């Protein structure tokens, strides 16, 4: 006699729904959006079918559509003109620049939308690195000053959450202090806590022309071989005052999501990055997989691993389905 029959809990859709442990909803999602200069233009990112770079006027319309679908949090990334890039990423705090102006307009038009900004030098840096480059090295402490200037400028424009994606040491505490001193104690920090030196960022760097001009990012982003190191980063970010801990990429790092969720009480965010999106789209376009089912299954796997929040290029597609 078989005494245990787990299949009883799978015998009908109603029972399966009843015992389902995890669900993804639009409330969990953050939609990354790309911004370009100009008017009335959108251009599709070649390696990310269905994802566009928008001029601000069209971006506002896109956000309006997304809000109607229930997506209310957006992570904004700028594609900066090469001519405006320099060693110190000065364009990142230019109030009249593309990025800051757009944030201001979005918050004016949609005060209830939550805007997450990216704090890192690479989109504005002539070196294509996340920090200041001196004699071929990425210098940590001087970079913090630039990051703080950038973060305060973003907060002044109404950013709700700042997302330091640079992986410099001590930046969460430094930014927390800088924001508080400037009167922005209500601005949240979603730290890119365990950000790995990953090949999965390729399509994103193509979209923003932000690939490093020399070398790689291995002296600041983490080694994909390591998990204990993620605990060190998470402990520091927690002590330094982060409000969310992010793991990036997501799919090859579900164990890290679980590790942080098991050991820390802050909400964990997973960044379902550009390369993960591109792989699903490419295989689906060939008819090799069912893109929609894979989208749902992979997003669910991130929740199951322990992510409370998911940043994903699938956000709109997810909201539109059924
Ligand atoms: C840069 C940054 C990157 C991403 C988000 N912020 C790329 C990088 O570190 O080179 C990648 C996002 C994606 O691939 O979707 N600070």
Q: Which descriptors apply to this entry?
A:
single chain; 322 residues; alpha/beta; TIM Barrel; eight-stranded parallel β-barrel; two-stranded antiparallel sheet; 11 helices; binds ligand PBG
Question: What would your notes on this structure say?
Answer:
By secondary structure, this protein is an alpha/beta fold. It has one domain: TIM Barrel (Alpha-Beta Barrel), CATH 3.20.20.70. It contains 11 helices and 12 strands. It has an 8-stranded parallel barrel with strand order 1-4-5-8-9-10-11-12, surrounded by 8 helices. A two-stranded antiparallel ribbon has the order 6-7. Helix 4 crosses helix 5 (171-181) and helix 5 runs parallel beside helix 7 (228-240). The chain is globular and about 70 Å long. The termini are far apart. The mean pLDDT is 97. The site of ligand PBG has 11 residues, from helix 6. Ligand PBG binds next to helix 6.
């Amino acid at each position: 006699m078989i005494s245990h029959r787990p299949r009883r809990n799978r015998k009908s859709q109603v029972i399966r729904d009843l015992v389902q442990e995890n669900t993804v909803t639009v409330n969990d999602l953050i939609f990354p959006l790309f911004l370009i200069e100009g008017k009335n233009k959108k251009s599709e990112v070649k390696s990310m079918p269905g994802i566009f770079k928008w001029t601000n006027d069209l971006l506002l319309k896109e956000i309006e559509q997304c809000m109607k679908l229930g997506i209310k949090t957006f992570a904004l990334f700028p594609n900066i003109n090469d001519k405006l890039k320099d060693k110190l990423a000065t364009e990142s705090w230019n109030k009249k620049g593309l990025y800051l102006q757009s944030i201001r307009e979005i918050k004016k038009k949609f005060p209830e939308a939550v805007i997450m900004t990216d704090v890192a030098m690479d989109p504005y840096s002539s070196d294509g690195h996340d920090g200041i480059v001196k004699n071929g090295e990425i210098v940590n402490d001087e970079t913090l000053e630039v990051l703080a200037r950038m973060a305060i400028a973003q907060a002044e424009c109404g950013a709700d959450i700042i997302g330091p994606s640079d992986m410099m040491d001590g930046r969460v505490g430094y930014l927390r202090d800088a924001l508080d001193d400037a009167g922005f104690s209500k601005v949240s920090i979603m730290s890119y806590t365990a950000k790995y030196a990953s090949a999965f960022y390729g399509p994103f760097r193509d979209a923003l022309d932000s690939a490093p001009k020399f070398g790689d990012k291995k002296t600041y982003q983490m080694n994909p071989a390591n998990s204990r190191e993620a605990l060190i980063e998470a402990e520091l970010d927690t002590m330094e005052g982060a409000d969310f801990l992010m793991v990036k990429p997501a799919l090859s790092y579900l164990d890290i999501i679980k590790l942080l969720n098991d050991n820390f009480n802050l909400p964990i965010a997973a960044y379902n990055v550009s390369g993960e999106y591109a792989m699903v789209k490419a295989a689906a376009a060939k008819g090799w997989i069912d893109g929609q089912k894979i989208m749902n299954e992979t997003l669910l796997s991130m929740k199951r691993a322990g992510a409370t929040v998911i940043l994903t290029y699938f956000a709109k597609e997810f909201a539109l389905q059924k």
